[in-house]
Amino acid sequence: MDAPARDRTLIGSDDLEPVTRPTREEAMEAVRTLIAWAGDDPRREGVIDTPKRVVDAYAEWFEGYNLDPAKELSRTFEDVQGYDDIVMLRDIEVESHCEHHMAPFLGKAYVAYMPTNRVVGISKLAKVVEIFARRLQTQETMTQQIADAITDSLRPAGVAVLIDAAHQCMTTRGVHHRHVSTITTQFTGVFKTDPTLRQRFLDFVNR
After folding, report:
1. Is 179 a catalytic residue?
2. Which residue among the candidates 25, 95, 100, 177 is catalytic per the annotation?
3. How far is CA 149 from the centre of its chain?
4. Which CATH class is domain 77-205?
5. Which among 71, 76, 96, 159 could bridge 118 via Cys, Cβ 3.0 to 4.6 Å?
6. Can 169 be counted among the known catalytic residues?
């Protein structure tokens, strides 16, 4: 069965010609090729349904390409009763895939902003993290994207983002360092200019 119509739309980077997204069957055939390249028989009973399962998994893992973070942040509230301090979410689960090896990296995100005249539902901040995580990523890029999305939609006085994650492209292959995590940060506005406020954020992270 072919993929939904939206899966056949043209995709591409800003500096590259767009390409047509493959059909579901084409994607499954690619998985069969990889199984054979690895040295197994894609017709074997144990793996005959693996292409279907892999394509289904990819649809879930990379759902972020079909979602818009700006839409998630579009409904805001101006009645904050004079609240003028940090809004922060801790321990947001991060499940993403390295764009270099397509291996998972797993960890936590910590996101804060200093509102000016509007706030957003707190679940939307977690959703923004999820949207960017469910794409092929580098951790550095994702950290920047989260901060930019919140800045563009909410126009806060500042944004702080910290991600702490372990990359399986480093723990299960290559250098095989299993107990190493990567920390990336992005600070804008008052979080960048005010070291006391930045330290408060970091203190909240480490509680």
Report:
1. no
2. 100
3. 12
4. alpha beta
5. 76
6. yes
What are the structure tokens assigned to 119, written together? 């706030």
* Cβ–Cβ under 8 Å, residues 31 and 51: yes
Q: Catalytic residue among 97, 130, 139, 186, which?
A: 139
- Per-residue pLDDT tens digits for 21-58: 899 999 999 999 999 999 999 999 999 999 999 999 99
Please confirm, yes or no, whether 100 is among the known catalytic residues: yes
Among the listed residues 25, 93, 95, 99, the single catalytic one is: 99
Distance of alpha carbon 112 from alpha carbon 132, whole angstroms = 16
The one catalytic residue among 97, 130, 145, 167? 167
The CATH classification of domain 5-61, taken from the options 1.20.950, 1.10.20, 1.10.286, 1.10.4160:
1.10.286
Catalytic-residue membership of 186: no
Q: What is the pTM of this model?
A: 0.90
99 annotated active-site: yes
Would you mind telling me the total number of residues written for the chain in this entry? 207
Q: 191, 198 in Cβ contact below 8 A? A: yes
Contact 154, 120 (CB under 8 A): yes
